[in-house]
Structures are given as C-alpha cells and as structure tokens.
Amino acid sequence: MMYHLLSFFVRILSYIPFSLLYILSDGLFYLIYFVIRYRRTIVCKNLKESFPEKSAQEIKMIEKNFYRFFADNILESCKMATVSPKEMGRRMNFVNMEDVNSILREGKSVSLYLGHYGNWEWVSSIPLHMADNVVGAQIYHKLRNGNMDKLILHNRERMGAVCVEMRKTARYINELVKSKKVSMTGYIADQSPRKKEAIHFLRFLNHNIPVLVGTEKITKHYGFDAWFVKVRRIKRGYYEAKFVRMHDNPQSLPDFELTSIYFDMLEQMIKENPELYLWTHNRFKYAKNIIE
Questions:
Q1: Residues of the chain with pLDDT under 50
Q2: In whole angstroms, what is the distance from residue 165 CA to residue 153 CA?
Q3: Residues 86 and 120: beta-carbon distance below 8 Å
Q4: If we measure between CA atoms, which residue out of 211, 261, 283, 239 comes closest to residue 111?
Q5: How many CB atoms within 10 Å of residue 133?
Q6: pTM for this predicted structure
Q7: Are the CB atoms for 111 and 215 separated by under 8 Å?
Q8: pLDDT digits over 158-210, tens only?
C-alpha cells in the first residue's frame, strides 16, 4: 500500500512541467535549508574540512548553492518516473559515447567510474545510447526502506539499465563473462566501505580516507576497459556527461593505482563546481585524519 502511495506521489510530481518544477524546487530549498535544516551540520563540517583554504563566506555560498541543487536533484529524479527517452536524450548529453561504443563492439566490456555528483540518476539513461546487444548495468546500495528502494529501482531501470545490488556484484559480473556477454557497468565508487573492510586509504578532498577497491579488482581481473564519467551541469535541467578513458591498459597498473586515478579525477571535477557533490553523505566518518 505504501509503495503505491509513494509511486503515485512521485508520478504526480513527474508530470509537472520543468518550468513549474523549478519554482517548486525554490520552495523546497527554503524548507530543507531554513526550516528542516537537513544535515546542515554534516554539510558544513565536510565543506570546511575539504576546503580549508576557503573563507567562511565562500563556504556558506557553496553550502547554499549545494542545497539549491539538492532540491533540484530531488525533483529532477522524480521526472525519471515518466520522462520520455527522447526528452531525456535532449536533457542528458553524452560526449565521447561513440568511443566507448567502438570498444564494446570489439567485444570488450567496460567499467564506468561515477561519483555522487550532478544528477547521477539521469546518467542511468546511458543504455539509450549504447551499442546493440550490450548489457547496461549499474551497481547500487540497497536502501533500508524497502518501498523507496523498489521505487528508485523502477525509475532507474526505465531506460534499459539493469540494477545489481552491491553484494551480488561479483557473481553477476562472473555470470556475464561466462555467458560471453559484453557489458558496460556503472559503479558509484565514492562510497565509504565498512570500517572492518577498509584495506586501502588514500587522499581525497583533504582527508585520508578508506576507499572501495572492488571496482578495480573486477576491472583488472576480467580485463575490462576503465572509463570515468565527468559530469557538467549546463543549466537547470540540462547536463553533459563526458566519457574519459582512465588508462590504456588498467591491467598493467600496480594495485590501487586505478582507484587513485579515479579519486584524483573525481576530486578535480568536484573542485570545479563543489555545489554539485553530495555533501550530505557522511563520507569522511572513517577518515584517519585531516591533511593540513
């Protein structure tokens, strides 16, 4: 019952024209930022520690701009429930897609490294532009709320992507390889591993953090190509996602080097427009220290 109510509410929001949606978003920003004050303590702490060179005024500006985008992102994600492939293709532009498709057509699978940056929900529309007979998958972390999890999965899979729960990743990829199926799999790899699973630390946004290395292990083990998705917000409701090859031969790299390349590229992207990163996430909870 609750799922159907949530689904109905999201569909109602999804039918609102974009011009009106952003008026609603302005009101949502005020509610989240000034009234509810959603995770403002965490956001402020993350920003101050990540950008020690910035003034208090600059940090406050990034914080407010982030919450404005956060409100936009929530409502833009709701549009996934009903938006047409044609409209999505007009608003989410993929650059260098043909370069990736040429690799896929050669029979080589691809690992896509992404971050919680820009509208990652809209990035799930990549299968609309992929070469024929290629499996488009995305790895996700299952939500505790079963109804929300079901709703988000439905929206993410509307454009042809297959959602794979994180704990089932290795089995799923292995089955694809055994079946000789070419795939392009997206990994939002900037999440924090559980404390007991932290085996490697590196520098990211002025912190020494534990990082997930599973994407690198899979990529190197199966000989996949590795690409980073660099997202840019052109204006409200319009994005560009550029595919950037991370290395010509990932298998030749020493352990953890591919992961290091990913976080360097992600950090550079975040610094260009820090308000587009998901600062409400307590990403640095297991950081060993702040690097001065």
A1: none
A2: 10
A3: no
A4: 261
A5: 9
A6: 0.96
A7: yes
A8: 999 999 999 999 999 999 999 999 999 999 999 988 888 889 999 999 999 99
